[in-house]
Amino acid sequence: MHHHLIGPLWGNLIIIGVAGTITVACFVAMVWMLIRPGEKDRKHPKYAVLRNDR
User: Using one digit for the tens of pLDDT, what is the confidence trace for 5-53?
Assistant: First the structure.
């Protein structure tokens, strides 16, 4: 029995794959920007995340 709100299998797999790829890319970008924020000013707010006293 096929439910009327469920699409074809390949369409669901493509959507899940694209959403998963975007999610992984966002996490990779987050870690990259924490490790190498690109800011040279040591007082920039990005460096506050990695302070030792936190």
Answer: 677 888 889 999 999 999 999 999 999 988 886 777 777 777 777 777 6
Query: If you write DSSP's letter for every residue of 23-44 in order, what string do you get?
Result: HHHHHHHHHHHHH------TTS
Q: Give the pair of three-digit tokens for residue 30.
A: 């987050």
Distance CA 10, CA 35 (A): 37
Whole-number Å distance between alpha carbons of 15 and 1: 22
Q: How far apart are CA 1 and CA 30, in angstroms?
A: 42
Residue identified by tokens 């506050």 is 48
Whether this prediction's pTM lies above 0.90 is answered by no
**Location of structure tokens 């920007």:** 33
